[in-house]
Amino acid sequence: MTGTSQDTLDPPDWQEFRSQGHRMLDDILDYLEHIRERPVWQPIPPEVRASFRQGLPAAPEDLATVHETFMRDVLPFGVGNAHPGFMGWVHGGGTPVGMLAEMLAAGLNANLGGRDQMPIEMERQVLRWVRELFGFPDAASGLFVTGTSMANLIGLLVARTFALGTGGRRQGIAASDKRLIAYASAGAHGCIAQAMDLSGIGIDALRMVPVNDRHEMQVAALERAIARDRSAGLTPFLIVGTAGTVDVGAIDPLAALADIAHREKLWFHVDGAYGALAMLATDIAPRLAGIDRADSIAFDFHKWGQVPYDAGFVLVRDGNLHRRTFASPAAYLRRETRGIAAGSPWPCDFGPDLSRGFRALKTWFTIKVYGAERLGRMISGTCALARYMGQRIAEAPMLELLAPVSLNIVCYRYRSENSDLVNADIVAALHESGIAAPSTTTIDGRLAIRAAIVNHRTNASDIDALIRATIAFGEARSEPMPLRKAS
Ligand SMILES: Cc1ncc(COP(=O)(O)O)c(C=O)c1O
What separation in Å is there between the alpha carbon of 64 and the centre of ligand 1? Predict the structure, then answer.
């Protein structure tokens, strides 16, 4: 530093910086425009991986050079979820609109923990839309979070306050003589058990209720489990229904779960990580009936909503209870009625994060630019593709469906003697071929190839390519010679 002048990090030559910025924008738009011409995924070359083992760089490097490194060494070796052939796990594809909004958010560099600012008004606008979508009252609160794992944890913590009162926050659950018990289906996502762990209630206090042949929670089994726990002196407090299970896309009978929760005075939380946004799709929304009676809902805009990562959301019917679960007074966060410190309550009163990015902006842009109806049609379209894929599998004698196609997820396998091994090999070969990227799961003890059609770019030709390649790799691997190289 010379004299008292600050060594600002802004560019010395804005014009040159602007030109470089335009080149970077063009490069990433080229990537998105031509994504179909690329492999879905390709392995990271060892030398590229090794080049990211360097020490802390002391000296500056030119922006253009750093950008070149990104284009050469990072961009081609992502997981591939923007690509139409990506069908693994549950990943949204993102949109160019969301990407541009994210750039604006980074430029503004807003911190949405609190204070009086339009970015928070925008988050409140999205909350109003979410309330409207799920038929929740004006008193319902909501919050952007990283993803549904965090949103489920927040829902569970509000349920804990519902059961123990706010005293539990200070004294901890150990001070309570109540042994809290929660219920979710055997198909529930692992983050529900994790939330039980993180909340201090414990994983053993989660009952995994059996499912029927459509992989939906069995209502009678739930009722029996609650009765059994009550008669053992335990305190049932929470039912978690899933709208779109991660394995097969099953929807729990939400209306029946709402009835039971109401009768038993339990908190009813819905994990709708990707499935909840099917409320936008006129043909699927009726199957989510009962979600409007939930006490809290967790879901992601970054899955079926196609908002770039990350954009999870939690909605809580009783906004007051939600706030009482998290709000903590602090002198340095004093609220005012005028000036920047106005606008209370602040988002930090509804969750554990004080520093919060502007996730609302990319979500607001996505909903404004595409509109709710078009997003709903896109969601319906992915389900239609899943049904098409189900039919193609049913028509192929060497393939077998392993679960009913309820939403947008198809679980199947190549028929073979050594089926688990062969199908795991097929999936790895599909990834390495760059043709398509499904993932695997286990259905009734059998390894399944699992295609979750979440990406708005996927079309019937991508499904055809996946089926063709599955059969080709299956045939190649089912020959009597060694199925897998000895390691
Ligand atoms: C049903 C369900 N719940 C929870 C999650 C976790 O969501 P996230 O990855 O946003 O934390 C997922 C992820 O796919 C899911 O499918």
Answer: 37
Residue of 149, 406, 455 best suited for mutating to test ligand 1, as the one with most atoms within 8 Å of CB: 149
Q: List, for residues 300-351, the tens digit of each pLDDT value.
A: 999 999 999 999 999 999 999 999 999 998 999 999 999 999 999 999 999 9
Distances 96 to 81, 144, 308, 365 between C-alpha atoms, Å: 14, 21, 9, 11
E strands within 91-196? Answer: 141-145, 180-185
Structure tokens at 221: 């089994």
Residues 216, 220, 221, 222: what is their CA dihedral angle, to the nearest 10 degrees? 80
Classify burial at 92, counting beta carbons within 10 Å of its beta carbon; exposed 0-12, middle 13-18, buried 19 or more.
buried
- Whether omega before 310 lies within 30 degrees of 0, making that bond cis, reads yes
Map residue 2 onto helix, strand or coil: coil
At 315, which helix (H) or strand (E)? Answer: strand 312-316
- Cα separation, 383 vs 55, in Å, equals 47
Q: What is the distance in A from the centroid of ligand 1 to the CA of 273? A: 5
Residue-level pLDDT at 479: 59
Q: What is the DSSP letter of 204?
A: G
pTM: 0.96
Residues 6+ apart with CB under 8 A from 425: 473, 477, 483, 484
- Residue whose CA is at the smallest distance from ligand 1 atom 10: 147
173, 187 Cβ separation under 8 angstroms: no
| 54 Cα to the center of ligand 1, angstroms | 34
Q: Which residue(s) pair with 180 in the sheet? A: 235
Q: Which two tokens stand for residue 200?
A: 């201090």
Give residue ranges with CB within 6 A of ligand 1: 90, 147-149, 189, 191, 242, 244-246, 271, 273-274, 300, 312
Separation of 307 CA from ligand 1 center, angstroms?
A: 15
- Answer yes or no: are the C-beta atoms of 147 and 153 closer than 8 Å: no
Q: Which atom of ligand 1 is nearest to the CA of 149?
A: 11
- In the chain, the N- to C-terminal Cα span, in Å, equals 57
415 within 8 A of 475, measured Cβ to Cβ: no
Ramachandran class of 263: left when φ > 0, alpha when ψ lies in -120 to 50, beta otherwise: alpha
Across 407-475, the runs of DSSP E, i.e. the strands, are 409-414, 439-443, 446-452
Which is it for strands 235-242 and 180-185: parallel, antiparallel or unpaired? Answer: parallel
